[in-house]
Design goal:
heterotrimer, A mainly alpha, B mainly alpha, C mainly alpha, B: mainly alpha, 8 helices, C: mainly alpha, 11 helices, 70% helix
């Protein structure tokens, strides 16, 4: 099993040099694109099938493969257990969809030789991180994943903002890897045994476990996008090509969640009482801040990147609840929360990839990502509009699609939490529940805005009125993802049962079996307590809507006439009279943004008689950047400036420095007991 | 039957906390005085119910005092002061309504945690009434801190005292003389504050605390 | 046999909510008019309005898309389903387990999402105003509603409406502080969601401060009829919800015979009339708030609901 998977990964890695050679050949760019993406599609489908098979079988004896690579006394261990199998499914489903999309989208790439070599390597790296069974291969694959995605982020290097995005991304990725390095170092202990099996059996002291937890949260959280370590995400994700953005948002953040799960739930053992409070608080704040940031953006891809931050917050809330229940030994409730979190991981990878593909199609068709320059695309790109609408409905957690089911399960888990005795949790959980509800409502507002301003209304620029429909491959990828969203929303019982082995591995408990419930409902706790039937709701909506339409058209009237828009009798000729993205967000900006973003609207009116235009400016400040990141950057600059004088010393000074360091070390050796 | 008694006592104490929140929400002085009258009325009802539940007839007198003085006399007097000072428009707040209510919720949570942990062995009715009473006291203090108008600060002080009365009746066996002395001291304090307000208003034409700070030379 | 009876009862509820909702709207309008010393429109006027609108030709803007034409049917279907799942004269109907209270709120949120999109579709300023203000109100009212559901569910031990109604009807419920807080918050949220004074004015169509009416400004004919019917259904749903959670007397249980069903139906009509009368009086007494005072108003509901949930978490006797 693992051996087949490793062969497939090797095939992916082999594609990189092939891609370099193929795209270097004259007029070979188009063939290279089809070759590389087609091969990636096939290989990721194979890997996904292997992972599904491993998840379904879930035998207790999962095979481990040890390769003689890496450290000589360690080797490189790889294993696919239930947790790895689930995340392999997520990674490879996302990879397959992105490759299918890129078969169409990649034709428009103007420098494919900067993208094609790194894309298969990126997919291979993500697979390796999930399959790694010892700390060394985990960290090497993690860093490889960061480097390949960095190369893809700076693919369009002509734009200065892309280079800046790459720089910030590299800094934050290095920070994350450093945190994980320290965490694994603490876990391996002075014995230095890095395999996961050995770490699992060792019992770290409480202080070591606490420190490891904090480092793991910082390291994995920065890659996933937890506030306040999120600053790189909205810069880097929009800068990359759209299929890579989909992979970064939809899949790489989930690999970070995998890292957190592996470290905290699997390797660290029973959690302490306060861990869940930290995770819950961070998750809740991330969810609300993410969606509020998203509402303030004009760039469509940046909206989607901030929305990823919001959903990561929701996932971490579910994980925090699972930690809380596990630390009290309530296995059934922990299973419910963990299932909800993992289901949201799957759902988010589906609809976020779908939305990024849509944004990529819009970018290709119109040449711009700025919502203020778009509009009326539902007439020019009807099929893209349908799938983008499906993605927007899914991400706003509305029935009957899948986003609602995972959020519903999280709410059911919150309703179980009064059993927890800790006072900190008694106060944190209701507050986090309110934050979660707030973020769900704001997400719906965000996607009404994103879909409405981009696709509805009238075209605001000639670029928007001249858009062409997307090509077949890209549409096929999007339709596939939208169909999966619908299926996951209508038949969630299947997915909940499929997650049972993973949950059993991590919290030693599982949700009640869902396949036997009548009418295909899901019953998370008990029948009298709560139940949900997505299939019935969906069927009722379709049937009653269609019946009403039919009845009214037959019995009352089906006449229709077109005319100019009513608009209260105002002859509304100008396209600029429509609502813009900024004006749509103005009420919410005024309610929430005045304190959180210091949002100010400044209107400058010209003096009477002057022909200058009036100007309305909206000023926003990213307080986390201004008070968190900027001081650190300034501090580093100051220290670097001071230390610069070390570059210009005389030879005698350098020799004395070396001599002083040597004497100091000898002193330490002498004094140390 | 005892469960119903328990629940009604809780309901009345909880209504007192809700009335404190309603006070925080008001932004016009006349409305604030009306809400304070209702606050005192709910206090009177709560104390009367405690008298019935505990079988302590002297608490009926406490309830009557609260009703007469704080629900009728003091609001009427405040309304007359308000008309004479001519300040019946807005109350300027230091913190907005939203943040003030969020702080209020935090204070209630804090009061709950403190009271329910500290009094873990006591009788449940008394514990939870004490928790509500501490919430009312903290909310009264919050109101004093987040308002600029002196009359609204006085009302915050009065509602704080209402919370103290609720606490005292919750803990069984408060003798009558304590209540009378507390009530009289509050009345004296109120008269003194009223006199001072008139003097200030005469000299400076305003009772806005920030403007008064300017006259003291404290604001730049 | 029992299955046919259950189907018939569920069907009866769906028909009942559909037929009663215009009557409720007409009753509220008539009462408001009488309170203002006017005669007011006849009680059955909303039925006549709906029939008249259904028969008219639809005038569609030139650039309205297929989404604009489909949305009224979707909004109607979603609201009708949600209204059929709230217990009116009997709890435990056949399909009541397919959606609990959180799912019902989410179905209404889908309807609101669709309506906000419809406001943006034609590309006029009025639609934009309506949609942007609607999502602002929703971003506060929906969390408040969810916290109310949490508070009541923590007392009743379930989010299934039939179980909650049965619990509220039983003697174990007692007079709880959290229930009082939840009731006040639910009344505020119901007013905000149904676009009633002080949040929005349902009576005029031209003010710039309108929210719901501005979103549906471009609709005409049968589309407008469906949207008005959906608004009436939503009002009926919220009054039924308040009645079944906080005034559940007379609600017949799943094991009821024909006499209990009749009592349940009569009690339901009485509760609707009482709710409508209280709404009419409240709307007449209070003035509409300016738009940027609304976050404070609905935020107060969110705070009260949060306080209710917090109290339930802190102690079981709150």
């Amino acid at each position: 099993m693992v051996a087949y998977a490793l062969c497939a990964v090797a095939a992916l890695l082999a594609l990189s040099p092939i891609a370099v050679a193929a795209s270097a050949a004259p007029r070979g760019a188009r063939a290279a694109t089809s070759l590389v993406y087609g091969a990636c599609l096939i290989i990721t489908l194979i890997l996904g099938a292997i992972a599904l098979f491993a998840l379904y079988r879930d035998s207790a004896t999962t095979s481990v493969v040890t390769l003689p690579l890496g450290l000589p006394w360690l080797g490189a261990h790889f294993r696919i257990d239930a947790l790895a199998a689930f995340f392999l499914v997520v990674v490879n489903l996302g990879g397959a969809a992105a490759s299918l999309f890129a078969l169409g989208y990649g034709r428009h790439e103007h420098s494919p030789q900067r993208v094609l070599p790194f894309y298969p390597a990126y997919l291979a790296a993500m697979n390796l991180v999930v399959m790694a069974d010892d700390a060394f291969s985990f960290l090497v694959s993690w860093e490889f994943m960061s480097l390949t995605s960095w190369a893809l982020v700076i693919a369009n290097h002509e734009l200065r903002e892309n280079m800046r995005a790459g720089f910030v991304y590299l800094m934050m990725a290095s920070f994350g890897t450093l945190m994980l390095l320290l965490a694994f170092g603490l876990l391996a202990g002075p014995g230095g045994n890095y395999t996961f099996d050995a770490i699992r059996t060792s019992q770290p002291a409480a202080i070591v476990a606490a420190l490891t937890f904090t480092l793991a949260l910082a390291g994995a959280g920065s890659k996933a996008g937890l506030v306040p370590l999120h600053a790189w995400l909205p810069l880097a994700h929009p800068a990359a090509p759209s299929h890579v953005s989909a992979l970064m948002s939809g899949v790489m953040t989930k690999v970070a969640v995998y890292g957190f799960l592996r470290l905290v739930f699997d390797l660290l053992g029973t959690p302490a009482w306060w861990w869940s409070i930290v995770v819950l608080a961070l998750g809740g704040i991330t969810a609300v801040m993410g969606v509020l940031y998203a509402l303030m953006q004009r760039d469509l891809k940046r909206v989607l990147a901030y929305s990823t931050i919001e959903n990561i917050g929701i996932i971490f809330v579910a994980l925090g609840l699972a930690l809380a229940f596990q630390s009290e030994g309530l296995a059934a409730a922990a299973a419910l929360s963990l299932t909800a979190g993992l289901f949201h991981v799957f759902n988010h990878s589906l609809f976020k990839s779908l939305l990024f593909f849509g944004a990529g199609s819009v970018l290709n068709a119109t040449g711009t990502r700025d919502m203020e320059h778009l509009g009326g695309l539902i007439h020019r790109m009807p099929r893209t509009a349908v799938v983008f609408l499906a993605g927007s409905v899914a991400i706003s957690a509305l029935p009957p699609l899948n986003g609602f089911v995972s959020e519903w399960l999280i709410f059911q888990a919150i309703l179980l939490s009064p059993q927890l005795p800790s006072w900190g949790l008694k106060l944190t959980v209701p507050a986090v529940g309110a934050l979660l509800a707030l973020s769900a409502a704001l997400a719906a507002a965000c996607f009404v805005r994103a879909f409405g301003i981009t696709f509805l209304g009238r075209p605001r620029t000639p670029a928007a009125s001249g858009a062409q429909e997307t090509d077949g491959h890209s549409l096929a990828a999007m339709v596939l993802l939208a169909t999966l969203c619908l299926i996951a929303g209508i038949l969630p019982g299947l997915f909940i049962d499929a997650l049972a082995p993973v949950v059993q591995l991590l919290v030693r408990g599982r949700m009640p079996v869902q396949t036997g419930v009548e009418w295909l409902s899901i019953v998370p706790i008990a029948e009298s307590r709560s139940s949900y039937n997505g299939l019935l709701l969906f069927s009722f909506m379709i049937v009653s809507g269609a019946t009403t339409a039919f009845a009214i058209h037959r019995l009352a009237s089906d006449k229709l006439r077109r005319g100019p828009a009513w608009g209260c009798g105002y002859p509304d000729a100008s396209v600029a009279m429509q609502y813009t993205a900024d004006s749509f967000a103005q009420p919410i900006r005024r309610v929430f943004g005045t304190t959180l973003f210091r949002a100010r609207e400044i209107g400058e009116m010209p003096r009477p008689g002057s022909t200058a235009p009036a100007r309305l400016t909206v000023q926003l400040r990213d307080l986390i950047w201004d008070y968190g990141y900027a001081p650190i950057a300034i501090g580093v600059d100051v220290v670097a400036d001071r230390l610069n004088y070390l570059q210009f010393l005389t030879i005698r000074s350098y020799l004395s420095l070396v001599f002083a360091a040597l004497v100091l070390l000898l002193l330490v050796l002498a004094i140390w007991p | 039957m005892p469960a119903l008694v328990f629940d009604i006592a809780h309901l009345l104490a909880g209504s007192l906390v809700v009335m404190s929140f309603v006070q925080l929400y008001q932004d016009r002085l006349s409305a604030l005085i009306n809400v304070f009258a209702v606050h005192a009325l709910v206090l009177a009802l709560s104390v009367a119910w405690q008298a019935f539940a505990q079988g302590a007839p002297h608490l009926y007198i406490t309830a009557a005092i609260a009703l007469v003085f704080k629900a009728i006399i003091i609001p009427v007097a405040l309304r007359r002061i308000m008309v004479r000072l001519g300040i019946h428009r807005e109350i300027e707040v230091v913190v907005g309504v939203g943040p003030a209510m969020l702080l209020g919720i935090g204070l209630v949570a804090l009061a709950m945690v403190v009271m329910l942990r500290v009094t873990a062995e006591a009788d449940p009715l008394a514990r939870e009434d004490l928790a509500f009473a501490l919430s009312v006291v903290l909310l009264g203090l919050l109101m004093m801190v987040t308002r600029r108008n002196a009359v609204s600060q006085v009302i915050g002080f009065m509602s704080l005292e209402n919370g103290l009365v609720l606490a005292a009746t919750g803990a069984k066996g408060m003798p009558l003389v304590v209540e009378i002395s507390v009530a009289f001291s509050v009345l004296i304090a109120f008269i003194v504050i009223g006199i001072f307000l008139f003097r200030i208003r005469e000299r400076f034409d305003t009772v806005d605390m920030q403007a008064l700070d300017k006259f003291r030379g404290e604001r730049r | 046999m029992a299955v046919i009876r259950d189907f018939a009862l569920q069907g009866a509820q769906m028909l009942l909510v559909l037929l009663l909702s215009p009557l409720l709207t007409g009753f509220v309008r008539k009462l408001k008019a009488r309170l203002l010393r006017r005669q007011g429109p006849p009680l059955l006027q909303p039925y006549r309005d709906l029939i008249r609108l259904m028969r008219k030709e639809v005038v569609l803007a030139d650039n309205a898309s297929w989404l604009f034409r489909v949305i009224p049917y979707f909004v109607f279907a979603a609201t009708w389903i949600a209204a059929s799942l709230v217990p009116t004269f009997r709890s435990g109907l056949l399909f009541s387990w397919s959606a609990d209270l959180i799912a019902i709120i989410a179905v209404l949120a889908s309807a609101r999402f669709a309506l906000a999109l419809a406001g943006l579709d034609v590309g006029t300023s009025f639609g934009g105003i309506g949609s942007s203000r609607e999502v602002m109100i929703a971003s506060l009212a929906e969390p408040a509603m969810l916290m109310i559901v949490f508070a009541v569910a923590l007392i009743a031990g379930s989010t299934q409406l039939s179980t909650m109604a049965a619990f509220m009807n039983s003697p174990e419920v007692g007079l709880r502080v959290s229930l009082g807080l939840a009731l006040i918050a639910l009344v505020i949220v119901a007013i905000a969601e149904n676009a009633r004074i002080p949040v929005d004015n349902p009576a005029t169509h031209l003010e710039l401060t309108m929210v719901h009416e501005a979103m549906v400004l471009e609709y005409s004919g049968r589309h407008l009829a469906l949207i008005e019917l959906s608004a009436a259904l939503k009002l009926l749903l919220y009054i039924s919800l308040i009645a079944c959670l906080f005034a559940p007397w007379g609600l017949s249980s799943p094991a009821a015979g024909p006499w209990e069903l009749t009592v349940g139906a009569v009690a339901y009509v009485v509760k609707l009339a009482a709710g409508g009368a209280l709404l009419a009086v409240f709307e007449t007494v209070i003035a509409k708030m300016r738009v940027f005072r609304l976050p404070g108003f609905i935020g107060a509901a969110l705070m009260l609901a949060l306080l209710a949930t917090l109290l339930r978490f802190v102690s079981g006797s709150f």
